[in-house]
Amino acid sequence: MLQLGDVRLESRLLIGSAQYPSPQLMQEAIRASGAQVVTVSLRRQSPASGGGNDFWSLLSSLQLQVLPNTAGCHSVKEAVTTAQMARELFNTRWIKLEVIGDDYNLQPDPFRLLEATRELIAQGFEVFPYCTDDLVLCERLVEAGCRILMPWGAPIGTGKGLLNPYALRTLRERLPRITLVVDAGIGLPSHACRAFELGFDAVLLNTAVAQASDPVAMARAMKHACIAGRLAYEAGAMPERDLARPSTPTLGTPFWQT
Amino acid sequence: MAAATATTGPAITVWLNGEPRQLAAPCALSEALAQWQPAGGGFAVALNEAFVPRGDYAAALLRDGDRVEVLQPMQGG
Fold first, then answer.
1. How sure is the predictor about B10, in pLDDT bands with cuts at 50, 70 and 90?
2. What pLDDT does B1 receive?
3. Residues in chain A with pLDDT values less than 70
4. CA distance A211 to A233
5. CA angle A126-A132-A133, nearest 5°?
6. What b/e readout covers A101-134, taking b as 16+ CB neighbours within 10 angstroms?
7. What is the rounded distance in angstroms from the CA atom of residue A220 to the CA atom of residue A225?
8. Which residues are CB-neighbours of B37 under 8 A, at least 6 positions away?
9. Does residue A77 carry a catalytic annotation?
10. What is the spatial distance between Cα A214 and Cα A237, in angstroms, rounded to a whole number?
11. Which residues of A touch B73 (CB under 8 A)?
């Protein structure tokens, strides 16, 4: 079971709702993933989109935990205001806090992220900070009151996987009681599986499923990868060795003479 | 909060989601929203980059040059 704030969930896969070929495929893929948490955003109301009603009614029918984000925010004020609006609109104190510092790789701004986190926690939010894998930043976020951290595996939408497994493993070792989620950069089921093998509690992904040739099939693959990775972590992996060692017993080897 | 009283006065321009909108006179946010008719089913509002809770729409007075953001649920990652 995944402990996410005050909620316990069966699925360790958190999924995004963007970039699917159609709303129906979004619905089918999310259902196939088995995810119980879905991320959403807030954008300017557009009459052409029916005020967001169609999207929202489709998503609501899945009856999942909603995790609103502050995607696109660059300042503390923008992020805090967006979070406040999300709390009213989605009736949740959860917020995936994104404060972007660089438009080239969409890297989080660690300084503004920490400032916004402090402000939002003071206002009663459960902050899910989208952060880099920097240990000291993560420790500061925990000191600010975060129970969940969401370091990137790679920049958003790149599908490059876990670029710095050492840093992620270090986070797991140094922050054993914090819920750790790899957010962003997952491109393949093997990437998701690897995150769990490192001891992460969950992964959040979107593009890998939404932009697959068959999003529903990829959603299913991700679901199984997450289950496999977590089981492997709980099972305890064998120690890696540099030298080969036969797995078949050498005692009784035929055709052998002294 | 007490409801803001719509005042008579010169026409004003406010910015709704980045687009200029004329109002006949300074008025409460609730009146402007009734005029603009945001689609139902859920929206949240910020005035000059500050969140306005739904219960405060009637008390928030719009002035010339104010920036109103009306946001809706949208796909997100």
1. confident
2. 47
3. 47-52
4. 28
5. 105
6. eeeeebebbbebbbbbbbbbbeeebbbbbbbbbb
7. 9
8. none
9. no
10. 32
11. 40-42, 52, 55-56, 59, 89-90
